């Protein structure tokens, strides 16, 4: 199976090439030329398997140039004792028809680990397949969680270096400390004086700078990305939708074949897009519910068909979703337009030039059939955390709470009570400050004491990697103007 660019489908690469490149030269994203169907009987078969085995099976359908033995080895490295539960991505029941898919049991306690624990291994294997002799420098723009997860995934991986840019005032104290204290000889971390979109645009600009790439190539380096624009990041996320479905079947909460809804706290549209691909493969998904915080550009897009990023940017208590340009939407547009690369390229040009575009009515109709969308404010997010903790004793983070709130609103509005899974994207301990505030315990503790305080207040144990931050030293304090990111990279690779 070949991979095409969303902006030029005459560009056709193997999966190993697409993973090694990250982003296509024309600025487009790679997509599979067709979406493989889950074979008959797949769900029964997968239900009896471990998470690693499910990952090998599902990813194998897309990665024809990787053998089963190779994928088995990669998945064993990626989803082993680095997760704090053998289930890897367990499903926790909340009430009769609602569950949480907990994607934060990995080393950095956010769902980014699901993809970034495997991407470095996929990438190094791809380089070898491609006969690539150059080393790879990974550039990451992060709204908080990706940066740490990428650093942890790539640290001391052969033939790689990784440089992470984060918005200086857009991440939580714990997220910042997780990154600035990162171990490893091949890592760099720098804050940007701007917001996440500034950091992301800066990284994209570096990628499209042909002269710079040429200079690096002469020195034996090429650039790649660990942002969710890389297919190697998106694909591992398809696995957990299918895995969650199997777990609901095993738990007897649904019968195989029953439809479920997934509600996904969304930023860059990577997580929910993986759900879309799972549905395209034949997983019985009724609606994908796209949940946003008050940066609700996607809610507006799904309701009006107009994507308009000309609006003010808000810093919220769910910072990993503080995004105005959801890069992965481009893949959805390509898919629902039946692979119309010129149409997609046109929309993306309008977005770059005017900050907005409006999709054609036939695309909007497809969006309506597949998705529902909603948003919530910070105070609604906090109320949700408190309500769910008080009523069910379940402690969730601010991002998951946005999903939970939006699901409730969706049900109230539509009466659709289908068995639903809220994708739980981070441990509440990554956002102690806001979670404590939500539980009515604000103001007392500072910095890492917040972790102890939240343990006391909630009675739920904190994940070990966050507790261990106490003994870490800050290694990285550099910052840069958003226009000077390129020279930071140049310096890093000197
Ligand atoms: C990245 C992230 C999101 C948003 O996921 P996208 O794939 O960017 O839509 C939501 N919650 C948390 C905790 C995250 O880290």
List the helices and strands and how they pair.
Elements: E1 3-5, E2 8-13, H1 15-21, E3 30-32, H2 42-47, H3 51-62, H4 68-78, E4 91-95, E5 98-102, H5 112-116, H6 119-129, E6 135-141, H7 145-154, E7 160-167, H8 173-180, E8 187-193, H9 196-207, H10 210-218, E9 221-225, H11 231-250, E10 260-265, H12 270-280, E11 285-292, H13 297-304, E12 306-308, H14 329-336, H15 341-354, E13 356-358, H16 361-370, E14 371-375, H17 378-392, H18 398-414, E15 420-424, H19 432-438, H20 449-458, H21 464-467, E16 479-481, H22 485-492
Helix pairs in contact: 1-6, 3-4, 3-11, 11-12, 17-18, 17-19, 19-20
Account of the protein in words:
The chain has a six-stranded mixed sheet, with helices on both faces. It has helices at residues 15-21, 42-47, 51-62, 68-78, 112-116, 119-129, 145-154, 173-180, 196-207, 210-218, 231-250, 270-280, 297-304, 329-336, 341-354, 361-370, 378-392, 398-414, 432-438, 449-458, 464-467, 485-492; strands at 3-5, 8-13, 30-32, 91-95, 98-102, 135-141, 160-167, 187-193, 221-225, 260-265, 285-292, 306-308, 356-358, 371-375, 420-424, 479-481. The mean pLDDT is 95. A hairpin with a 2-residue loop joins strand 1 (3-5) and strand 2. It is of the alpha/beta class and 494 residues long. Pyridoxal-5'-phosphate binds at residues 110-112, 145, 228, 265-271, 320-321, 399, 425-426.
């Amino acid at each position: 199976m070949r991979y095409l660019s969303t902006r030029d489908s005459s560009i056709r690469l193997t999966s190993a090439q697409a993973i090694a490149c990250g982003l296509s030269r024309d600025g487009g994203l790679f997509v599979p030329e067709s979406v493989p169907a889950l074979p008959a009987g797949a769900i029964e078969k997968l239900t009896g398997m471990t998470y690693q085995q499910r990952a090998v099976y599902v990813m194998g359908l897309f990665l024809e140039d990787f053998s089963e033995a190779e994928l088995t080895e990669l998945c064993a490295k990626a989803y082993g004792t680095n997760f704090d539960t053998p289930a890897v991505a367990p499903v926790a029941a909340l009430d009769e028809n609602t569950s949480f898919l907990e994607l934060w049991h990995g080393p950095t306690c956010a769902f980014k680990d699901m993809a970034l624990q495997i991407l470095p291994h996929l990438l190094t294997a791809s380089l070898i397949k491609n006969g690539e002799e150059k080393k790879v420098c990974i550039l990451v723009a992060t709204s908080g969680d990706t940066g740490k997860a990428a650093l942890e995934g790539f640290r001391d991986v052969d033939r790689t270096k990784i440089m992470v840019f984060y918005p200086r005032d857009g991440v939580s104290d714990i997220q910042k400390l997780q990154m600035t204290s990162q171990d490893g000889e091949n890592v760099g971390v720098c804050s940007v004086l701007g917001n996440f979109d500034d950091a992301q645009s800066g990284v994209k600009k570096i990628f499209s700078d042909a002269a710079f790439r040429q200079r690096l190539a002469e020195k034996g380096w090429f650039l790649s990305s660990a942002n969710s624009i890389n297919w190697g990041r998106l694909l591992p996320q398809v696995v957990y939708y299918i895995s969650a479905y199997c777990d609901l079947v095993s738990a007897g909460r649904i019968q195989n074949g029953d439809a479920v809804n997934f509600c996904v706290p969304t930023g860059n549209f990577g997580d929910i897009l993986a759900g879309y691909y799972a549905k395209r493969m034949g997983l019985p998904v009724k609606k994908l519910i796209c949940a946003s915080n008050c940066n609700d550009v996607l809610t507006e897009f799904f309701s009006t068909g107009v994507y308009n990023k000309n609006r003010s940017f808000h810093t919220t208590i769910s910072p990993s979703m503080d995004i105005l340009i959801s890069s992965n939407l481009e893949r959805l547009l390509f898919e629902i337009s039946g692979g119309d690369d010129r149409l997609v390229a046109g929309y993306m040009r309008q977005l770059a030039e005017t900050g907005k575009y409006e999709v054609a009515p036939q695309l909007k109709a497809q969006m309506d059939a597949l998705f529902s969308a909603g948003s919530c404010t910070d105070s609604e997010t906090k109320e949700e955390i408190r309500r769910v903790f008080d009523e069910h004793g379940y402690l969730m983070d601010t991002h998951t709470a946005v999903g939970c709130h939006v699901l409730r609103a969706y049900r109230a509005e539509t009466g659709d009570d289908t068995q639903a899974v809220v994708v739980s994207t981070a441990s509440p301990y990554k956002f102690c400050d806001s979670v404590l505030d939500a539980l009515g315990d604000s103001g007392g503790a500072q910095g890492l004491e917040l972790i102890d305080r939240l343990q006391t207040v909630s009675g739920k144990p904190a994940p070990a990697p966050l507790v261990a931050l106490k003994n870490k030293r800050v290694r990285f304090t550099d910052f840069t103007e958003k226009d000077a990111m390129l020279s930071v990279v140049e310096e890093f690779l000197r």
